[in-house]
Amino acid sequence: MKVPLLDLKPQYHALKRDIDAAIEAVSESQHFILGPAVKKLEAEVANYTGTKFGIGVSSGTDALLVALMVLDIGPGDEVITSPYTFFATGGTIARAGARPVYCDIDTASFNLSAAAVERFIARDCEVRGGRLVNKHTNGTVKALMPVHLYGQVADMDALMAIARKHGLRMIEDAAQAIGSADAKGRRACSFGDIGCLSFFPTKNLGAFGDAGMCVTNDAALAERLEIFRVHGGKPKYYHAFIGGNFRLDEMQAAVLNVKLPHLDDWSAARRRNAAYYDAAFAKAALGSAVVTPQGAPGGRHIYNQYVVRVRGRDDLRAHLAKAEIGTEIYYPVPLHLQQCFAYLGHAAGDFPESERAAAETLALPIYPELETAQLQHVVDSIASFYRQ
Question: Which H helix or E strand runs over 120?
Fold first, then answer.
């Protein structure tokens, strides 16, 4: 029995007629840039995330980058974030000319630890002239960029309290978390100044290529985002700002408009699959060899990934590959140990929880169309590894 990490074909075949019609409609209109499909998607995604404004952009990475740009974060500024995340989180901070400041993660959720952020500020920062300043670099700490990793909302009450106390802007990296919510029902992207989404094909809501969106409750920020995504020009050919070409493609928006009404059903199927895994692993009684994901009580985890902590991770992965079970490591090298960030001066041991997660975690197949027999085959194959 084969169990791929992800198979997008069943989803496409189920929606093929509607998707093909949407693509044909764009082709017939010959309106390819910021057309009606983009406007429709912006409004519906804003509503879905509990925000007022959606601004479609070219990718999740560009969503983060343009968010930093419109908040005037650049050289001399610092942004606190997690070292255990996809590269774009730290990479966009550096591309904006700012300095990424890494703080360790929470053991259970893999998300940025509010306690670690508080320790950094108390130990390494001071207030100068109304600015929060890193005493070691003299940089101005200007923003927090938590990541809602794997589909679970970070501890936003605690992180927002830190942001308000120190006058920091809040950018939510929700690339993996559209539709996730905390115990109070508040959706990812609805807490801070700007929420950033990715519609990369492997996401719960995936386009047919790169696509992304910024959402916000601030009308002024929404207008700036719209201006910055078209090279900072308003009106056309008149530039008060230096922006970029960050426009969401009309064809991608058309595809996403077909898919969005199905998103809750897909997320529910992922949650059912996760619940099956949880119960099956508990029944297998593997003890500490396999630690299943821990969702926050009352929260809505949408399981963009189902990530387990395991003993002998690399050997287990090789064993599963022989059984034709797809897996992935998200992420094998935390950002503070990436070569391109050597200038930050970090060393192994600086963020032990992030490093432990990088060494122990493995993502298992979780996509909605998986059959029960496939899920059980994954569990049985893992159990056989530890019992051999």
Answer: helix 114-124
The domain boundary, picked from 223, 238, 262, lies at 262
d(CA 152, CA 109): 7
- In terms of Cβ atoms closer than 10 Å to its own Cβ (0-12, 13-18, 19+), residue 297 is exposed
Whole-Å CA distances, 146 to 35, 129, 263, 285: 32, 26, 23, 34
* pLDDT tens-digit readout, 55-97: 999 999 999 999 999 999 999 999 999 999 999 999 999 999 9
Look up the pTM and report it: 0.97
Integer Cα distance of 148 and 180 in angstroms = 9
Do the bridges between strand 125-128 and strand 131-134 make them parallel or antiparallel, or are there none, so unpaired? antiparallel
pLDDT in tens, 108-125: 999 999 999 999 999 999
Q: Mark whether 200 and 112 lie in a shared domain.
A: yes
Helices (H), 216-349: 219-228, 250-259, 263-284, 313-322
Neighbours of 240 (CB within 10 A): 9
CATH number of the domain encompassing residue 313: 3.90.1150.10
**CA distance linking residue 83 with residue 335, whole number of Å:** 5
Four-CA torsion 108, 375, 382, 151, nearest 10 degrees: -20
- Burial of 339 by CB count in 10 Å (0-12 exposed, 13-18 middle, 19+ buried)? exposed
Kindly state the DSSP code that residue 296 receives in the 8-state scheme. P
Please list the ranges in the chain whose pLDDT falls under 50. Answer: none
Please, are residues 121 and 367 in contact by the beta-carbon 8 Å criterion?
no
pLDDT at residue 388, as a whole number: 83
Vertex 322 angle, CA 321 and 325, to 5°: 45
Q: How far apart are CA 55 and CA 66, in angstroms?
A: 11
CA distance 264 to 360: 30
Domain stop point among 213, 236, 262: 262
* Residues 116 and 63 placed together within one structural domain of the fold: yes
Q: What is the CATH number of the domain that holds 205?
A: 3.40.640.10
Q: Are strands 140-145 and 290-291 parallel, antiparallel or unpaired?
A: unpaired
What is the per-residue pLDDT for 121? 98
Closest C-alpha among 212, 179, 211 to residue 196: 212
